[in-house]
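re: ur msg from earlier - yeah i can do the MRU complex, just paste it... oh wait u already did. ok heres what im feeding in:
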Amino acid sequence: MRNILDYDSVELSPNGRDVIILDQSLLPNQEKFLHLTTAEQVFYAITLLKVRGAPAIGIAGAFGLAMCMNRFKAKNLQAFDKEFLRVKRYLYISRPTAVSLMVTLDRMERCYYETEEEAKDKSDFETMRLIRERLTAEARAIKLEDIQKCLAIAEAGFSLLKPGVGILTYCNAGHLAVSRYGTALSPIYYAQQKGYMPKVYSCETRPMLQGSRLTAYELSKAGIDVTLICDNMASDVMRRGKIDIVFFGCDRIAANGDVANKVGSSMLAVLAKHYGIPCYSIGPMNTIDFGTKTGNDIVIEERPAFEVTDMYFDKPVAPKGVKVYNPAFDVTPAELLTGIITEKGIVAPGDLARLKE
Ligand code: MRU
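and the outut:
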Protein backbone atom coordinates (compact mmCIF):
# COMPACT_ATOMS: atom_id res chain seq x y z
CA MET A 1 0.00 0.00 0.00
CA ARG A 2 1.28 3.50 -0.82
CA ASN A 3 1.75 6.04 1.96
CA ILE A 4 2.40 9.77 2.23
CA LEU A 5 6.13 9.34 1.71
CA ASP A 6 5.41 8.12 -1.81
CA TYR A 7 3.83 11.50 -2.60
CA ASP A 8 5.13 15.05 -2.45
CA SER A 9 3.17 17.38 -0.20
CA VAL A 10 3.18 20.15 -2.86
CA GLU A 11 2.95 19.58 -6.59
CA LEU A 12 2.01 21.39 -9.79
CA SER A 13 -0.21 19.42 -12.17
CA PRO A 14 1.40 18.46 -15.51
CA ASN A 15 -0.58 21.17 -17.36
CA GLY A 16 0.43 23.80 -14.75
CA ARG A 17 -3.19 24.70 -13.97
CA ASP A 18 -3.61 23.13 -10.49
CA VAL A 19 -1.50 23.30 -7.34
CA ILE A 20 -1.94 19.95 -5.63
CA ILE A 21 -1.31 19.74 -1.90
CA LEU A 22 -1.73 17.10 0.75
CA ASP A 23 -3.99 18.78 3.31
CA GLN A 24 -1.72 18.68 6.38
CA SER A 25 -4.44 20.09 8.64
CA LEU A 26 -6.30 16.75 8.37
CA LEU A 27 -3.35 14.52 9.24
CA PRO A 28 -2.96 11.98 10.73
CA ASN A 29 -6.61 11.04 10.35
CA GLN A 30 -7.11 11.62 6.67
CA GLU A 31 -4.79 11.73 3.65
CA LYS A 32 -6.64 14.09 1.35
CA PHE A 33 -5.23 15.92 -1.66
CA LEU A 34 -6.60 19.32 -2.62
CA HIS A 35 -6.50 20.88 -6.09
CA LEU A 36 -6.02 24.64 -5.73
CA THR A 37 -7.03 26.71 -8.72
CA THR A 38 -7.22 30.33 -7.44
CA ALA A 39 -4.91 32.74 -5.61
CA GLU A 40 -7.39 32.83 -2.72
CA GLN A 41 -7.30 29.04 -2.33
CA VAL A 42 -3.49 29.08 -2.21
CA PHE A 43 -3.52 31.99 0.27
CA TYR A 44 -5.89 30.21 2.65
CA ALA A 45 -4.12 26.86 2.26
CA ILE A 46 -1.00 28.64 3.54
CA THR A 47 -2.61 30.65 6.34
CA LEU A 48 -4.66 27.67 7.59
CA LEU A 49 -1.53 25.45 7.59
CA LYS A 50 -2.95 23.05 5.01
CA VAL A 51 0.47 23.46 3.47
CA ARG A 52 3.12 24.45 5.99
CA GLY A 53 6.83 24.31 6.75
CA ALA A 54 9.07 27.05 5.36
CA PRO A 55 10.31 25.39 2.13
CA ALA A 56 6.88 23.90 1.35
CA ILE A 57 5.15 27.27 1.56
CA GLY A 58 7.87 28.80 -0.62
CA ILE A 59 7.26 26.13 -3.24
CA ALA A 60 3.47 26.47 -2.88
CA GLY A 61 3.78 30.24 -3.42
CA ALA A 62 5.85 29.77 -6.61
CA PHE A 63 3.49 27.08 -7.94
CA GLY A 64 0.52 29.27 -6.98
CA LEU A 65 1.86 32.23 -8.93
CA ALA A 66 2.59 30.09 -12.02
CA MET A 67 -0.85 28.42 -11.76
CA CYS A 68 -2.68 31.77 -11.53
CA MET A 69 -0.89 33.17 -14.59
CA ASN A 70 -1.50 29.95 -16.53
CA ARG A 71 -5.23 30.36 -15.85
CA PHE A 72 -5.52 34.15 -16.23
CA LYS A 73 -7.13 35.25 -19.48
CA ALA A 74 -5.64 38.68 -20.24
CA LYS A 75 -6.77 41.11 -22.93
CA ASN A 76 -3.26 42.52 -23.22
CA LEU A 77 0.18 42.51 -21.58
CA GLN A 78 -0.68 45.44 -19.31
CA ALA A 79 -3.55 43.49 -17.72
CA PHE A 80 -1.27 40.45 -17.42
CA ASP A 81 1.41 42.52 -15.61
CA LYS A 82 -1.19 43.93 -13.24
CA GLU A 83 -2.57 40.51 -12.35
CA PHE A 84 0.93 39.11 -11.79
CA LEU A 85 1.78 41.84 -9.28
CA ARG A 86 -1.61 41.52 -7.55
CA VAL A 87 -1.16 37.77 -6.98
CA LYS A 88 2.48 38.10 -6.01
CA ARG A 89 1.80 40.77 -3.39
CA TYR A 90 -1.21 38.90 -2.06
CA LEU A 91 0.64 35.59 -1.55
CA TYR A 92 3.67 37.46 -0.16
CA ILE A 93 1.78 38.39 3.02
CA SER A 94 0.12 35.01 3.65
CA ARG A 95 2.68 34.16 6.39
CA PRO A 96 5.25 36.67 7.61
CA THR A 97 8.03 34.75 9.39
CA ALA A 98 9.37 32.13 6.96
CA VAL A 99 11.63 33.93 4.52
CA SER A 100 11.44 31.16 1.84
CA LEU A 101 8.05 32.41 0.69
CA MET A 102 9.42 35.89 -0.03
CA VAL A 103 12.60 34.48 -1.59
CA THR A 104 10.74 32.28 -4.07
CA LEU A 105 8.13 34.92 -4.96
CA ASP A 106 10.89 37.50 -5.59
CA ARG A 107 12.67 34.95 -7.77
CA MET A 108 9.45 34.43 -9.76
CA GLU A 109 9.18 38.21 -10.21
CA ARG A 110 12.74 38.40 -11.59
CA CYS A 111 11.89 35.59 -14.00
CA TYR A 112 8.76 37.47 -15.09
CA TYR A 113 10.52 40.74 -15.91
CA GLU A 114 13.58 39.12 -17.50
CA THR A 115 11.29 37.18 -19.84
CA GLU A 116 9.25 40.28 -20.63
CA GLU A 117 12.44 42.17 -21.50
CA GLU A 118 13.67 39.30 -23.66
CA ALA A 119 10.34 39.27 -25.54
CA LYS A 120 10.00 43.02 -25.98
CA ASP A 121 9.85 42.79 -29.79
CA LYS A 122 7.17 40.10 -29.74
CA SER A 123 3.37 40.50 -29.72
CA ASP A 124 1.55 40.68 -26.38
CA PHE A 125 0.09 37.25 -27.01
CA GLU A 126 3.49 35.69 -27.71
CA THR A 127 5.07 37.46 -24.69
CA MET A 128 2.38 36.15 -22.35
CA ARG A 129 2.79 32.64 -23.74
CA LEU A 130 6.54 32.81 -23.12
CA ILE A 131 6.11 34.23 -19.60
CA ARG A 132 3.68 31.45 -18.66
CA GLU A 133 6.12 28.85 -19.93
CA ARG A 134 9.07 30.38 -18.06
CA LEU A 135 7.19 30.88 -14.79
CA THR A 136 6.05 27.27 -14.83
CA ALA A 137 9.61 26.06 -15.49
CA GLU A 138 11.02 28.37 -12.80
CA ALA A 139 8.58 27.11 -10.16
CA ARG A 140 9.36 23.49 -11.03
CA ALA A 141 13.11 24.31 -10.83
CA ILE A 142 12.62 25.80 -7.34
CA LYS A 143 11.16 22.51 -6.18
CA LEU A 144 13.85 20.36 -7.83
CA GLU A 145 16.59 22.51 -6.29
CA ASP A 146 14.93 22.12 -2.90
CA ILE A 147 15.07 18.32 -3.23
CA GLN A 148 18.82 18.54 -4.00
CA LYS A 149 19.35 20.79 -0.97
CA CYS A 150 17.53 18.37 1.32
CA LEU A 151 19.76 15.54 0.10
CA ALA A 152 22.92 17.58 0.78
CA ILE A 153 21.57 18.54 4.22
CA ALA A 154 20.89 14.85 4.95
CA GLU A 155 24.54 14.00 4.37
CA ALA A 156 25.86 16.92 6.41
CA GLY A 157 23.57 16.14 9.35
CA PHE A 158 24.31 12.42 9.15
CA SER A 159 28.01 13.12 9.73
CA LEU A 160 27.11 14.05 13.34
CA LEU A 161 25.29 10.80 14.11
CA LYS A 162 26.36 7.43 15.45
CA PRO A 163 24.50 4.09 15.44
CA GLY A 164 21.57 4.02 17.87
CA VAL A 165 21.67 7.80 18.31
CA GLY A 166 18.89 9.45 20.34
CA ILE A 167 17.54 12.55 18.59
CA LEU A 168 15.08 15.07 19.95
CA THR A 169 13.12 17.06 17.38
CA TYR A 170 10.44 19.71 17.41
CA CYS A 171 7.50 20.63 15.17
CA ASN A 172 7.81 19.09 11.71
CA ALA A 173 10.78 19.79 9.47
CA GLY A 174 10.35 16.58 7.52
CA HIS A 175 9.13 15.29 4.18
CA LEU A 176 5.80 17.05 4.68
CA ALA A 177 7.41 20.45 5.24
CA VAL A 178 9.56 20.57 2.10
CA SER A 179 9.77 19.14 -1.39
CA ARG A 180 11.02 15.73 -0.25
CA TYR A 181 12.91 14.16 2.73
CA GLY A 182 12.94 17.23 4.98
CA THR A 183 15.57 19.40 6.60
CA ALA A 184 15.88 18.46 10.30
CA LEU A 185 14.47 14.99 9.55
CA SER A 186 16.46 14.24 6.39
CA PRO A 187 19.61 13.11 8.31
CA ILE A 188 17.32 10.77 10.25
CA TYR A 189 15.96 9.15 7.07
CA TYR A 190 19.53 8.90 5.82
CA ALA A 191 20.72 7.32 9.09
CA GLN A 192 17.89 4.79 8.93
CA GLN A 193 18.93 3.86 5.38
CA LYS A 194 22.49 3.34 6.61
CA GLY A 195 21.26 0.96 9.31
CA TYR A 196 21.94 3.32 12.23
CA MET A 197 18.48 2.71 13.72
CA PRO A 198 18.08 6.21 15.22
CA LYS A 199 15.72 6.64 18.17
CA VAL A 200 13.72 9.80 17.70
CA TYR A 201 11.80 11.69 20.38
CA SER A 202 9.24 14.06 18.88
CA CYS A 203 7.79 16.89 20.97
CA GLU A 204 4.08 17.18 20.28
CA THR A 205 4.43 20.94 19.61
CA ARG A 206 1.48 22.79 21.09
CA PRO A 207 -0.79 24.30 19.98
CA MET A 208 -0.97 22.97 16.40
CA LEU A 209 0.62 19.59 17.22
CA GLN A 210 2.87 19.34 14.18
CA GLY A 211 5.19 17.07 16.22
CA SER A 212 2.51 14.49 16.96
CA ARG A 213 0.24 14.87 13.95
CA LEU A 214 3.00 15.12 11.35
CA THR A 215 6.48 14.15 12.60
CA ALA A 216 5.38 11.09 14.58
CA TYR A 217 3.18 10.19 11.63
CA GLU A 218 5.72 10.44 8.83
CA LEU A 219 8.56 8.85 10.82
CA SER A 220 6.46 5.91 11.96
CA LYS A 221 5.18 5.42 8.39
CA ALA A 222 8.83 5.20 7.34
CA GLY A 223 9.51 2.53 9.97
CA ILE A 224 11.65 4.80 12.17
CA ASP A 225 11.66 4.30 15.94
CA VAL A 226 9.78 7.41 17.12
CA THR A 227 8.47 8.21 20.60
CA LEU A 228 6.02 11.02 21.14
CA ILE A 229 6.44 13.25 24.20
CA CYS A 230 4.56 16.30 25.44
CA ASP A 231 6.60 19.48 25.14
CA ASN A 232 7.10 19.71 28.91
CA MET A 233 8.81 16.29 28.97
CA ALA A 234 11.86 17.43 27.01
CA SER A 235 13.93 18.17 30.12
CA ASP A 236 13.11 14.76 31.58
CA VAL A 237 14.26 12.78 28.51
CA MET A 238 17.44 14.83 28.37
CA ARG A 239 18.21 14.31 32.05
CA ARG A 240 17.70 10.57 31.69
CA GLY A 241 20.36 10.46 28.96
CA LYS A 242 18.03 9.47 26.14
CA ILE A 243 19.04 12.36 23.88
CA ASP A 244 22.42 12.66 22.14
CA ILE A 245 21.54 15.52 19.83
CA VAL A 246 18.75 18.03 19.15
CA PHE A 247 17.68 18.80 15.57
CA PHE A 248 15.09 21.38 14.64
CA GLY A 249 14.29 23.44 11.54
CA CYS A 250 14.31 27.16 10.88
CA ASP A 251 11.99 29.70 9.31
CA ARG A 252 14.41 32.60 9.19
CA ILE A 253 18.01 32.97 10.35
CA ALA A 254 19.28 36.46 11.07
CA ALA A 255 22.77 37.55 9.99
CA ASN A 256 24.07 37.13 13.56
CA GLY A 257 22.93 33.47 13.70
CA ASP A 258 19.75 33.95 15.76
CA VAL A 259 17.14 31.46 14.53
CA ALA A 260 13.37 31.86 14.30
CA ASN A 261 11.58 28.51 14.34
CA LYS A 262 8.39 27.04 15.78
CA VAL A 263 7.64 28.49 19.20
CA GLY A 264 9.24 26.24 21.80
CA SER A 265 12.43 25.57 19.84
CA SER A 266 14.35 28.04 22.02
CA MET A 267 13.18 26.11 25.08
CA LEU A 268 14.94 22.98 23.74
CA ALA A 269 18.09 24.98 23.05
CA VAL A 270 18.15 26.32 26.63
CA LEU A 271 17.68 22.81 28.02
CA ALA A 272 20.28 21.31 25.68
CA LYS A 273 22.83 23.87 26.85
CA HIS A 274 22.04 22.99 30.45
CA TYR A 275 22.52 19.26 29.88
CA GLY A 276 25.53 19.69 27.54
CA ILE A 277 23.72 18.23 24.53
CA PRO A 278 24.58 19.55 21.05
CA CYS A 279 21.73 21.46 19.44
CA TYR A 280 21.48 22.24 15.71
CA SER A 281 19.10 24.27 13.60
CA ILE A 282 18.80 22.88 10.07
CA GLY A 283 17.57 24.51 6.87
CA PRO A 284 18.50 25.55 3.36
CA MET A 285 20.81 28.51 2.73
CA ASN A 286 17.91 30.64 1.54
CA THR A 287 16.57 30.62 5.11
CA ILE A 288 19.48 32.87 6.07
CA ASP A 289 18.31 36.44 5.74
CA PHE A 290 21.46 38.54 5.66
CA GLY A 291 19.24 41.65 5.46
CA THR A 292 17.96 40.96 8.98
CA LYS A 293 20.60 41.82 11.57
CA THR A 294 19.40 39.95 14.65
CA GLY A 295 16.50 37.84 15.87
CA ASN A 296 14.88 40.95 17.34
CA ASP A 297 14.30 42.21 13.80
CA ILE A 298 12.37 39.10 12.71
CA VAL A 299 8.60 39.56 12.41
CA ILE A 300 6.92 36.88 14.48
CA GLU A 301 3.50 35.74 13.33
CA GLU A 302 0.78 35.79 15.99
CA ARG A 303 -2.10 33.40 15.47
CA PRO A 304 -5.69 33.24 16.76
CA ALA A 305 -6.57 32.34 20.35
CA PHE A 306 -8.81 29.40 19.42
CA GLU A 307 -5.74 27.41 18.35
CA VAL A 308 -4.72 27.37 22.02
CA THR A 309 -8.14 27.11 23.65
CA ASP A 310 -10.18 24.92 21.30
CA MET A 311 -8.34 23.44 18.38
CA TYR A 312 -7.98 19.65 18.51
CA PHE A 313 -10.14 19.38 21.65
CA ASP A 314 -13.78 18.23 21.78
CA LYS A 315 -14.58 20.98 24.28
CA PRO A 316 -12.78 24.26 25.07
CA VAL A 317 -9.88 23.79 27.49
CA ALA A 318 -9.82 27.35 28.80
CA PRO A 319 -12.40 29.72 30.27
CA LYS A 320 -14.33 31.61 27.63
CA GLY A 321 -12.74 34.95 26.80
CA VAL A 322 -9.45 34.34 28.64
CA LYS A 323 -6.53 36.39 27.29
CA VAL A 324 -4.31 34.28 25.05
CA TYR A 325 -0.86 34.96 23.61
CA ASN A 326 -0.16 32.73 20.62
CA PRO A 327 3.09 33.53 18.78
CA ALA A 328 3.76 30.89 16.11
CA PHE A 329 7.56 31.17 16.34
CA ASP A 330 10.28 32.09 18.81
CA VAL A 331 13.88 33.14 18.43
CA THR A 332 16.75 30.96 19.62
CA PRO A 333 19.76 33.17 20.37
CA ALA A 334 22.81 32.16 18.32
CA GLU A 335 24.90 31.43 21.43
CA LEU A 336 22.59 28.57 22.42
CA LEU A 337 23.16 26.68 19.18
CA THR A 338 26.07 24.35 18.54
CA GLY A 339 25.73 24.88 14.81
CA ILE A 340 23.60 25.56 11.78
CA ILE A 341 23.36 22.90 9.07
CA THR A 342 22.67 23.88 5.47
CA GLU A 343 23.32 22.27 2.08
CA LYS A 344 26.79 23.89 2.28
CA GLY A 345 27.69 21.98 5.45
CA ILE A 346 27.85 22.78 9.16
CA VAL A 347 28.79 26.22 10.48
CA ALA A 348 28.98 27.83 13.88
CA PRO A 349 26.12 30.34 14.18
CA GLY A 350 28.62 33.17 14.60
CA ASP A 351 30.28 32.23 11.31
CA LEU A 352 27.38 32.81 8.93
CA ALA A 353 29.18 35.68 7.20
CA ARG A 354 31.65 33.11 5.84
CA LEU A 355 28.77 31.35 4.07
CA LYS A 356 27.75 34.61 2.43
CA GLU A 357 31.18 34.94 0.88
O1 MRU B 1 3.90 26.86 11.58
P1 MRU B 1 4.66 25.84 10.79
O2 MRU B 1 4.14 24.46 10.98
O3 MRU B 1 4.78 26.22 9.33
O4 MRU B 1 6.13 25.89 11.40
C1 MRU B 1 7.12 25.11 10.79
C2 MRU B 1 8.44 25.15 11.45
O5 MRU B 1 8.65 25.84 12.43
C3 MRU B 1 9.52 24.36 10.78
O6 MRU B 1 10.47 23.92 11.70
C4 MRU B 1 10.23 25.22 9.73
O7 MRU B 1 9.30 25.87 8.89
C5 MRU B 1 11.17 24.44 8.91
S1 MRU B 1 10.34 23.25 7.86
C6 MRU B 1 11.53 22.41 7.01
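cool cool. Residues 49, 52-55, 98, 171, 173, 177-178, 183, 210, 248-251, 261-262, 283, 328 surround MRU (CB under 6 Å). ping me if u need the other ligands too
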